[in-house]
Amino acid sequence: MDPRPALPPARGPLSEALFRALLEPAGTPVVAGELAAIAADGVLAEDSQLALYSLYELHYRGFRGVDENWEWQPALLALQAALEADFEVTLRERAWEPGAAVVPERVGESIMRLVADDQGAQLSPYLERSATAEQFREFLIHRSAYQLKEADPHSWAIPRLAGPAKAALVEVQADEYGGGRPDRVHATLFAKAMRALDLDPTYGAYLDRIPAVTLATVNLMSLFGLHRRLRGAIVGHLAAFETTSPIPNGRYAKGLRRLGFGADALDFFDEHVEADSVHENIAVYDMAQGLAMSEPGLAGDILFGVRALLHLDGRFAAHLLGRWDRGETSLLEPVTGAR
Length: 339
Fold this sequence. Notes:
The chain is mainly alpha-helical and 339 residues long. It has 15 helices and no strands.
């Protein structure tokens, strides 16, 4: 059986045209008009984010029944570039501080300050104290879009760095991949948590339910990771990711314990409390600040990567909390607990 996920249902004219093309042999002309759909939809809305996620997925595991030669077809690369350009412009408008002085030797301090000063919606206290088992299931479904490919988007940066920054990145990533132990790969631990909550841990199983506000957080990593010119941003993103991980994951673990879930559900979250506490200084100072000091021109993009993560994660948290406060599902369609 083909282990790749199936193409999800389209969410508008852009993804519909894309998926129709992907089911044809590679090189078949893409249906005209898809670029016009970008402006009509808005780059952060459902149709565009699903299309961008699907284009990026061609660089990861691909889709069942889709010719793998589509990955480097010029027509799709042009579409991807157009979507990326709109996405990046939107992010820079919302998460950039023009004219802000960035001192390479103080990039680590700046990252820690940005994280500490973040005023975005806080999801982890709710999950710790109030979330139901069904809300935890929804949370894991959202997170599966990234966690089941955990570390892969950041690993694109390895060949683009050198010296201390590269060594620090590899040190962090080695833990993400289980330090050579397949059973301790973090994506494997997350799949185990999904099974413990009676969810399907198959890669891509819930793509049809995951909304654009979540897909954008994953597309951000692929945007940064797949472009050498944005290597500063992917390093900043990873530094912020590691810095914002230990406390929330500790709260998620407490929430799962409150609901009576056992070791299989907790292993992923407990692992991140311990591992990311160690990773924080390595990622912030050895990797991010080390890169800024070796390539001072990247210092601004490193902090842009931090701000972009905080912005999109804030939107994601606000979406979940807002929907749950109204008694609604945070997914496109509700999912029952049974697999």
